[in-house]
Specification:
The complex is a heterodimer of chains A (263) and B (217).
Chain A: H1 2-18, H2 28-34, E1 36-42, E2 50-51, E3 57-58, H3 60-72, E4 75-81, H4 86-91, E5 97-103, E6 112-128, E7 143-147, H5 151-160, E8 165-169, H6 172-180, E9 186-190, H7 191-199, E10 206-222, H8 226-241, H9 244-253
Parallel strand pairs in A: 1-4, 1-5, 7-8, 7-9
Antiparallel strand pairs in A: 2-3, 5-10, 6-9, 6-10
Chain B: H1 6-41, H2 46-61, H3 64-77, H4 83-110, H5 113-121, H6 126-156, H7 168-179, H8 182-214
Classes of the chains: A alpha/beta (263), B mainly alpha (217).
Amino acid sequence: MKRLFQILAAAVLLAGLSVLRPAEAQTIDEILSRGTINIGVLVDLPPYGILNAQQEPDGYDIEVAKLLGGYLGVKVNLVPLTSPNRIPFLLTNKVDLIVATFGITPERAKQVMFSIPYSAIENVVFAGKDKKIAGIQDLKGLRVGVPRGTVQDVILSKTLGSAVKLARFDDDPSTYQALLTGQVDAIAETGLTGDKFYDSHPEGGIERKFTLLQQPNGITMRKDQFNLHQWVNTFVYFTKNNGELNALYEKWFQKPLPNLPVF
Amino acid sequence: MRQLNLGDIEFLLLAARWTILLSLYAAIGGGIVGLAIALMRTSTKATLRWIAIVYIRIFQGTPLLLQLFLVFFGGDMIGVPLGPWVSAVLGFSLNAGAFLGEIWRGAIQAVPRGQIEAAKALGLHFVPRMLRVVLPQALRVAIPPTVGFVVNLIKSTSLAAIIGFVEVTRAGQMLNNATFRPFVIFGVVSAIYFVLCYPLTVASRRLERRLALATKR
């Protein structure tokens, strides 16, 4: 048994020594010389990131990521992430940056660095036509569905506290479904996807009530990637001006890119 | 939103590869760790018993999801990036080892004490005593709970999604987010798990019956 432990300990030590840390792409030059960029994307948030009919990642974010790679002149390696694991993947150097509909907030900026906004997400409250809901205060006493940990979850719990009964779901489809099947009275969700979903289920009699917020999203990097950050900002600025970002936005959202404030 | 197509179902079936491979590696790795833990747990040496007990307490007392997370991202934190495969196999094996170890300890202890004493009286040392006397009898007791655990293990491989694996459950979620057809998609996902798990249960029952026959008087 003692021998077994010695062998095990040696194996662990060897593994530790032989696997050296891969080069961390912190600067533009490092990414250029490597020839590839690893970009984290979501594939479960239509129309920002979805699996298309060929089961490949597609959507606004994915096309922005490919455009970015094109301007950089390197191969894009898309890494599908989920909302809970996108920050750990970024912070442990498993991806170089993420284009994942990540809303810019001071809280998140303590951990990561955001580019200037390249897209916005519209958060809308949906409910049945018979319900009178015109503003956030009208949600008091109602059961409201939200996807767990999202911006709308935070806003509603902060503004209304215990006056609203929040039902937190694991993903967007469950949230939309819950309103349709009457498990909740209202939901706060992505406007465009909700429109499409409830248009295809007219029997539910569900409509838009009001816009909760318009949230600008940034391309996200680690806090020390200043060099890359400057290039990404330049990329967003340039493609916003030459109309390329707008063309992508029109393709996926059928409306022009909203006015995105910069910082 | 787009329509569900045949390619999507194929995508789900192909994703089952990862579920099968993960389960297989986890069962093998867990079996090796589990056997070591079971033997340590039933050892006459107090130190070995205590190491096994602490190990079991830690791995049974913390969530598998967190263990996977710690192995995968923790490796990078201390400068030893493990990659998704090594992390998944390591995480699942360490966890399964704790549960299988405890199951097999019970099975070993269910072998009547007299059998071990008789083996000792015949001059059998640890290895032949275990291989020829104790483990064959323990095996019979161990089969149903072991198979039950492995069936559970197959279903818990879905947790590997946190470290980037697109196995059957995650693939289903991704498709549902694009097509909004939960009943069809998760119906197929459930059917895939059933096809993987049911034969195991049947095989377990057959094996049990055969072993029971062998010891029938």
